[in-house]
Each structure stands twice: as structure tokens, then as C-alpha cells.
Amino acid sequence: MAIWVDDDSKILIQGITGKQGTFHGTRMLRYNTNVVGGVTPGKGGQKIDLEGNVIPVFNTMGEAVSHTGADVSAIYVPARFAAEAIHEAAEAFNENGGGLIVCITEGIPTLDMIKAVDKVKQYDGVRLIGPNCPGIISPGDDGGCKVGIMPAFIHKKGRIGIVSKSGTLTYEAVAQTMSVDEGQTTCVGIGGDPVSGTGFIDCLEAFENDPETVAVVMIGEIGGSAEEDAAEWVKENMSKPVVGFVAGSTAPPGKRMGHAGAIISGGKGTASEKFVAFERAGIYVARDPSEIGRVLVEALTDAGLRES
Amino acid sequence: MNIHEYQAKEMFREFGVNVLEGVHCKSVDEAVEAYDSLESEIVAVKSQIHAGGRGKGILYDTDSGEEVMKGGVKIAFSREDVQEFSKNICGNRLVTKQTGPSGKIVTNMYVESGCDIDHEFYLAILVDRDRKSVLVMASTEGGVDIEEVAAVTPEAIHKIWADPSTGLAMDECESLSRSLGITGDSAKELTNMLQSLYRMFLEMDCSMIEINPLVRTRDGTMIALDAKVSLDENANFRHPWREEVRDLSEEEDVEIRANDLGLSYVKLDGNIGCLVNGAGLAMASMDVIKLYGGEPANFLDIGGGATLESITAAFQIILEDENVEGILVNIFGGIIRCDMVARSVIEASKDIGLEVPLVVRFSGTNHEEGKAILDGSDISIHTVSSLSEGARKIVECIGGGN
User: Is A121 inside a domain boundary?
Assistant: First the structure.
């Protein structure tokens, strides 16, 4: 088991005929991810050949979902059309038993995201991950389910859940688990935008309820208070050990550090506040991402899940 | 992206938000002319820079560095006052607590009519990240820092939220007025102002509108006495007019150039340059350098689409900073391949005659090929396999650390 996506997930790619959609769609297929179709308005009825995998293209998400029975969508469309793509996916999944939308696109206007998130919230069975994120991956026995842009080969099926705001730092966390011979159930990149769908707490709750996940690595960054809220949730609800790191201890206030949401404003959202919140919640803290593996072993050992 | 007060007030006028009459000026003559045209006995002469704290800032002579005047916003009671104040402001360096010690040279001024203030309030509209909606925040304590109010008298701050589909409810606006002790026609004016500001927030794709102070005059009129507007840069594509209001002198030249190349760069005060892929990893690289006793010179994310050209440019940008004594390259290859980065590093270092110590850490896609390329080259590069090893090594190379 894993959370939200697994070997049985059926994936659609919104923007499949675009450069990004084709490039990453091909890599998803190489990992044996079950890509069942794509959507590009005006190109419905065509087929696209991704290294020998012939994938049908639909005009709308409504058609694509009802024809394929897909329950996951990966969005690779440009920023100016991405919010609309989320709306379309949300409606299509809502009418067909629910689904997961993974929006990879970076640079979507914040006000567009407020509307899109509000829309998704109205549909019980629909979840949004992202935007501006690497996506979600659940490694399987032979490949796995990769919905996003992460390098698949660094992953291995295992028992650690990973949730992170950052892309490459998620890969770092994955590599750290591998360095101590632990694999992953699911890795979720929730993205670094100020307004996004799934948050830390959603992921922590899902990992807590997932019987195969025994511990979680959580990677935060400066800006907002999502890490503090997550720490509070961990303290109250989490029975499994959590290892945490926060990026941006050296970031100057008032400066956006790459991600739209990574900014210390009015003295709030600093890494030190977040680390303090982590420690208060009993989260195992790594001050250096290269230490995540070692700290994870410590956490697993304390929980009686591993001989040190 | 920030805009000046005079530009924000122009926008306010367009959306029907009450502001006083004022004129944008760029010279002493223009300021005096503005005073004559405004026909207001009392005017404010206001320095136009993006940073806050202008009123309590200090102006220094750009050449001599001597203090010229206290206060970047001055109340003038005569034509002579206007002449004196604008002379002290124009072309001089204004240092406020938000500009840092180097301050900003003031080239724009705003001369604005006076008014009879009864009470100063604080008003802001911004994005609430937790509620995922637009938040209106107001306080009875205007004219002071909202952070200070939040710390000392949090009960003075009142909040209402807009519904993403139906907007800002009238009864919420009315209740906000009541909480602030604003009644009668002033309350109606405030409700209308909030509706107009919310419309502007949406139509202009703002990320923040801050009015500090928002004033009630003795005759009960509600007026935006100050205006600070930030725009969401992700929405630039639907607002081509922004190019015209953008003041490039307010931005770090090197950050603009980096941005044009698809790089995300922020200069810091240390001596170890960083070249990293990914924003989170770039921050973490800085943090770990500091953890092992070094001081990062910059944040630099080369992004997922980096090329030989952008990597060369990234090295050049890092080396423009004279403080840089060594560089740490930290790449976790995903879409980016480490072998491509390795070849770019070699070309770039030959191209620009790289002389400072260079430590490279590769992981992920093609990291072994990348390392082999670097190890086989004739330039002196330390290759390491983990971030902490890299940070320790570069700190050691420049002879620092603990």
C-alpha cells in the first residue's frame, strides 16, 4: 500500500502533446506508470506515440475520464491555462467518482489558485496536489506510479513516507533514506506556492493511516506557518515517528527565495520558529539535510523498528 | 513587484478610492509648481522609494555622505518649506530601517494636499495562506508598524475574509467598521472603499494593498493617506502595463539580469558563492555552509532548464561579488544531468578564468559521469558526494570555519 497513488492508478496527462507533457509522460511510462490517456483541446481523437506506447488524446477532461476510467491527472499546461485545467479536472473527477489532480506547473497567479483551490474543496472526492511541485510517486516492485517530474531511479519501494515543499530537497531526502537502506511508500511534493491544494497535515494524516508507512520525513521551508501547524498536528495525532528539516535558516527577511511562498515577512515564517515548533512536537530534527538518514535511523531505533 | 505611492494612488483614483490631491514631481521646480497648483496651505512632500519607514528615515548627501535632513516625508507650511524640503530630498540618499544602511537615492517625489485628521487607522488587504482566501485586516492604531500592534495590542486588529466566489460581504464590511468604532457616513464610506479596494485587488492581481494610515478627517471623510501596493508577478502576463510602472532603479541590477536568464539570485553578505538547482536545495546549501562555520555569499537557483549559457552566466554573477572567495556547486540531477553541468562548469571556469576554489557535489541523474568529467579535467576542482562534505570542504578551502 501507499497513499493516493499506486500500481492500479490510471493516469491522464493534461497537456500531453506539449513539450513538457510529452517529455515527462514518456518518463512516467518508462517507470511502468499506467498512463491511460491525455488531454489537449483541439487534438481529440488523435493518438500520441510515446516510445511505442500509443496513448489516446481527448479534447476535454470529461471525455477522457469517462472513456478511460482514470482517477489521477497530471497537469503540465502553461501557467496561464493551468488554473482552468484544474477546474476542468475537478469537475470531471467529481462526476466520475472522484480523483487526484497533480499540478506540476509553476508560476500560476495566486488569485487563480485561490479560486481553483476553492473549487476543489467543494468536491469531496477530489484532491489537488501542487501547483509548483515535483508531483507524487509511489515506488512499486517493478517501476511504480510516478506522477510528476522527479527522477524515478533514485527511489525504491519501502516503508518511509516523505512530504516536502521543495523539489530537489525531496530528492535529497529520498537519497538520505536510501543511504540507510530504507525505501519509500510514497513521496509527495506539495509545492512552494503561497496557495496550494494538499498541505503537510493532509499528507501526515494519510501516512498515519497507511499501514505500510512506519515513519515520515517532512521537509519544510521559510514562509507562512504550515510547518508550525503541522508540528501541532503531529503532537496531537501522530503515533509514527517524524523526521523534520526546514530550509532557509540563512535567508534574509523580506526576500523571496526562489519559491513564491518562501519569504520571511514581518518577522514571521522564519526557519528557527519552525525548528522550535518541530522540537516541541517531538519531531526528530535534522539541521543538515545530509543528516536526515542518520536521524531517521535514530527515530526508527527509538520506535523499535530497527536495530541501530 | 512593488510600485511607488504616487502610482498606487493613481490606481486608487481609478477604482474610486478616496485620496487627496497630489502631484508626482522629479525636481525642486516641479515640486514648487505642484505646491502652487494644489492651492493647499499645508502640503506633504514625500520621498518616493519602495521601502517603508520613510517618515522616520534620514537623508544623506549622495556625494559627501553628510546628513541633510531627518524625515523623508515632511509637512510644508509654505512655498519656501516646499523648496527647502524638496531640495533636501531630490537626488539624495534616504536611509530607512527597511532600506539597509546603503539606502536609496530618491529621484521621485509626491507633493500632496493636507487634510484635517481626526483619527488614523491601519488597513491592509492580502492573501491569507492558511485560509486560502483574501484577507482584510484593519486596526484602530494607524501610523505605526502593524507588527508592533500585533505584538503589543493584538485586540486592536480586526479581520474579515472574502469568499473566493462571492467576494467581500457587505455585512462583514459593516461589522469591520463597527469593530473599528467607525459609524454613520464614515462607515458607509469605508464599506464602499473596501469594495473598491477588493475589486482593485482582483483586477490588478495584487498580492498586497497596505494603507497606513487610513484617516478619518474631522468632517468624517475616509481617506487613504498612504498607499503601498505589491503586485503578483505570476500574473504579469495579463498586465502588460506593468512594464511602464516598474522602477528598475528599485531592484538590484544583478537580480534583474539573473532573472532574465532564468536564474533566481539573491545577494547575501558572506564569502562562499553557491550554485544550486532547486530553491529548497539552494536554501539548504546556504544553511549547511553556515552550519559548518562559513558564510554564504548568495542564494542561486539555476532552475530545471539550465544550459551551458545560463550556468556560465551564473558563475559570472557569483564572481561579480568581490567578497566571494570560494564556490560550492550543489546539483541533485533530476531533469538536469550532472554530466551536462560538469561540462558547463569546465567551460565556464576556462571562459571566465575562475581562480577561487571550487567544490562540486553531484547526486542524481548521471552523477558518476559528471564526477568523472570533472576529475579528468585539468582544472582544480574538489568533487564530493554529499552536501555536508561539500560545505565542510569549501569552508576549509577558504580557511574559515569551526
Answer: yes
B92 touches chain A (CB under 8 A): no
Mean pLDDT, 10 residues at a time, over chain B (402 residues)? 97 98 97 96 96 93 95 96 97 92 94 96 95 96 85 90 97 97 97 98 97 96 97 96 93 88 93 96 97 96 89 93 96 92 92 92 95 92 95 92 54
CB proximity A148 to B under 8 Å: no
Q: Which three cell numbers stand for residue A234?
A: 503531529
ipTM of the complex: 0.93
Candidates B102, B130, B132, B203, partner chain A, best to mutate (most A CBs within 10 A): B132
User: CA-nearest residue of chain A to B207?
Assistant: A110
Nearest to A287 among B280, B291, B364 (CB): B291
Q: What is the CATH number of domain B117-242?
A: 3.30.470.20
For residue range B85-137, list pLDDT tens digits in order.
999 999 999 999 888 888 999 999 999 999 999 999 999 999 999 999 999 99
Per-residue 3-state assignment (H helix, E strand, C coil) for B6-68: HHHHHHHHHCCCCCCCEEEECCHHHHHHHHHHHCCCCEEEEECCCCCCCCCCEEECCCCCCEE
Instruction: For residue A109, give the nearest of B98, B232, B296 by CB distance.
Output: B232
Range of the domain at A285: 156-302
CA distances from A2 to A26, A99, A213, B273, B338 (A): 23, 16, 8, 40, 30
**A249 and A178 both lie in a single domain:** yes
